[in-house]
Amino acid sequence: MIQSPVEFFRTLPKKVCPECGQVMQEQAESYLMECDRCLSKKVE
Ligand SMILES: [Zn+2]
């Protein structure tokens, strides 16, 4: 069973921020767990 790369990415679960539950867009250069909004809250 060969799965095309497109199908593979489509079936990946969406990344959700554990802080606010907002679905985040995948960022290849970023492995942050939280969305930009929650991260900015933590930065003082
Ligand atoms: Zn968040």
Task: Describe it.
This is YhfH family protein. It holds the Pfam family YhfH. With 44 residues, this protein is α+β, with helices and mostly antiparallel strands. It has a domain at 15-42. It has 2 helices and 2 strands. The protein starts with a helix and ends with a helix. The mean pLDDT is 77. The structure holds zinc ion. Zinc ion binds next to helix 2.
Strand order of the largest sheet: 1-2
Low-confidence stretches: none
Estimated share of beta-strand residues: 5-15%
Kindly report the average pLDDT value: 77
Number of helices: 2
Largest sheet: 2 strands, antiparallel
Structural class: alpha+beta
- The count of DSSP E runs of length 2 or more, i.e. the number of strands, is 2
What Rg do the Cα atoms give? 14 Å
Helix/strand order: HEEH
For the termini, the CA-CA separation is: 50 Å
Bound molecule types: zinc ion
In one word, what is the shape? Answer: elongated
Helix share, percent: 25-40%
InterPro entries: YhfH-like
Protein name: YhfH family protein
Keywords:
single chain; 44 residues; alpha+beta; two-stranded antiparallel sheet; elongated; binds zinc ion
Task: Spell out the blueprint of helices and strands.
Elements: H1 5-10, E1 15-16, E2 23-24, H2 36-42
Antiparallel strand pairs: 1-2
